[in-house]
Amino acid sequence: MALQRVVESVIHLLKGGTVHTMHPAYFGLFNPSVLFPAMLADQISAAFNPQLAVWSHAPAAIEIERHTIAAMAGRFGWSDGTGHFTTGGTESNATSLLMALSRTFPQFGQRGVGALSGQPRLYVSAESHLAWLKIAHQTGIGRNSVHLVATDGMGRMDPLALSEAIRIDREKGHIPFFVGATAGTTNAGMIDPLEACGDRARAEALWFHVDAAWGGAAILSAQAADHLKGIGAADSITLDAHKWLAVPMGAGMLLCRDEMLLGEIFRVSASYMPTSTDAGVDPYTHSIQWSRRFIGLKLFMSLACLGWRGYQTHIEHTLAMAAQLRGLLCASGWRIVNDSPLGVVCFEDSAAGTDPAVIAARVVASGDAWISPAMFEGRTVLRACITSHFTTSEHLGGLVDALARARRAEI
Description:
The protein is an alpha/beta fold. About 40% of the residues lie in helices and about 15% in strands. It has helices spanning about 5-15, 35-50, 60-75, 90-105, 110, 130-140, 160-170, 195-205, 260-265, 295-330, 355-365, 395-405; strands spanning about 80-85, 120-125, 145-150, 175-180, 205-210, 235-240, 250-255, 335, 345-350, 370-375, 380-385. The strands form 2 sheets. A 7-stranded mixed sheet has the order 1-7-6-5-4-2-3, with helices on both faces. Strands 8-9-11-10 form a 4-stranded antiparallel sheet, covered by helices on one side.
């Protein structure tokens, strides 16, 4: 087939076979309308196709990524921050767990679970991203290692429940080693009490990680950064640029302070790899990936064009839209059920009418907007998330109108 025909065919397939997450009336998961500089970055990266395994093959690309990682770490108050770009939050979180295992159990890297004298235990909230179960399975410590800590009734980890869980596990002979707080839960945009969780982790000599894959972008907003108080005390942080920072997938980041530990976890050498140099770190020796693409360019170029102030404007626009949506919903007879400082609005019919899942299905079927049902503190609610810089009051009004029609079964 001629290239033009192939291109037209693929575009036709995607237009009709994709949920259009770039649309400003998409109020679903954390898929934003992506920035144009980031789109260009992916094209540039594909054209040069640099191999970022070793510094000697791609010094410019590797230093661009290291510069960007250090700049982002600096926003969290780390002057000595390091880390690397990842495929996404799951890889970043998995790396944080490997770091914690390797620090807590020095023989884990050589002997695996044979180095453990008991059942290791990691603590995340019941509202956390359940990729933790996959990660525990993947690392070999088993899904039973994951302790889902009770929440406080508003979707945040309960520090008292965390303390009690650690105490009980120690009495049983288990080995606590990791606390993973969440900054921006998927269901409801809640932020765990980071200071309290960090204090508990330090008191128990546990690794403290913050999964801020989505909500961590709030650090760029003077209006919202205070809600992340305590995140700077973490041993490691997960942040996804392909969420609220509006670049194409996938562009995760692991931020940490201990580059030597990363080197210990992923240490390897092979005769077919170019000789390492003293000029810079070879990424294949410091991350789970070996051959990998130039992930960081899209965030670098977006930051270069927008600057920190431009990103602040983007973040605060979506926060303003979320606040406006809350007001419109309350005025239309809906009840807001979450108290998120971020851009997720969970709500239900104040008259306890139609099943939220049915309402969501009707809205989606209308084609006017995309929302979803979600479980929040044991009950099904409606969920709307705003991440697009294109979303305006007009789109919010369209959603509220679609909800009204769905409630009346007119859709």
